[in-house]
Design brief:
Bound molecules: 2-phosphoglycolic acid
Number of strands: 8
Strand order of the largest sheet: 1-2-3-4-5-6-7-8
Structural class: alpha/beta
Number of helices: 9
């Protein structure tokens, strides 16, 4: 059975690799339809030159002047720049950004709006720090997705305790959270439950398909395993 239709695999390289050569190598083995490669900003152009089937995404962005897109903001990258570089997607509100850079739900909402304004698809990350803390998820949705047209975004459910630990969220538990998220989305907007939701957090070759097939997520967001050629290929093969 194929899950290709409407299913996405996001490769989040985070702050890796360290050289352009490695970036090109990883990009070439990840080059599959349905895959969105999110390298560090400095490798976007090179990755774009290498891939033919995969799409390009960014891991973050900042807010520019609404009129010009830019601004006097040292060290930051605007959604407009990302669009011009060939990105179709931008990850917004990853838990590492929320924790390390104190990004809150209000900022996440603003970034999401700006990304949409450029015609890019935001992949908005939500997820609780402590297993079962549904109030946190509820708040992230209510504040972070306030006034956001849900039809145009993708949500990544990434329980913080499962990220980078090798200890993924139990598939049935993840499915329950997905149902919970959809119920809140449905309260915000008519047909809100139709917003695609991906799972992220220690996805590997053994569990990737379970999140898609058993728990009906519309794809996975892969961190560590997206940097390993053999493992990532197997993840892609298992889903598509
Ligand atoms: P991981 O990262 O697959 O290494 O757990 C996922 C993420 O942080 O997006």
């Amino acid at each position: 059975m194929s899950f290709r239709k409407d299913t996405l695999i996001i490769a989040n390289w985070k702050m890796n690799p360290q050289t352009t050569e490695e970036a090109k190598k990883i990009a070439s083995f990840s080059d599959e339809k349905g895959v969105v490669i999110c390298p560090p900003f400095v490798f976007l152009r090179q990755v774009k030159d290498v891939v033919k089937k995969a799409e390009l995404g960014a891991q973050n962005c900042f807010l520019g002047n609404p009129a010009t897109g830019g601004g006097a903001i040292t060290g930051e990258i605007s959604p407009k720049m990302l669009k011009k570089t060939g990105c179709g997607y931008v990850i917004v509100g990853h838990s590492e950004r929320r924790n390390l850079f104190q990004e809150d739900d209000v900022l996440v909402a603003k970034k999401t709006e700006m990304v949409l304004k450029e015609g890019l698809t935001p992949i908005v990350c939500i997820g609780e720090k402590d297993a079962g803390d549904v109030e946190q998820i509820k708040e992230q949705i209510n504040k972070g997705l306030k006034n956001i047209p849900l039809k145009k975004i993708i949500i990544a459910y990434e329980p913080v305790f499962a990220i980078g630990t090798g200890d993924p969220c139990d598939v049935d538990e993840a499915e329950k959270k997905k149902v919970f998220i959809k119920s809140i989305l449905a309260k915000i907007y008519k047909n809100g439950e139709e917003t695609p939701i991906l799972y992220g957090g220690s996805v590997n070759r053994k569990n990737a398909l379970l999140y898609v097939k058993k728990a009906s997520f519309q794809g996975v967001l892969v961190g560590g395993a997206s940097l390993k050629a053999k493992e990532f290929k197997e993840i892609v093969k298992s889903i598509f």
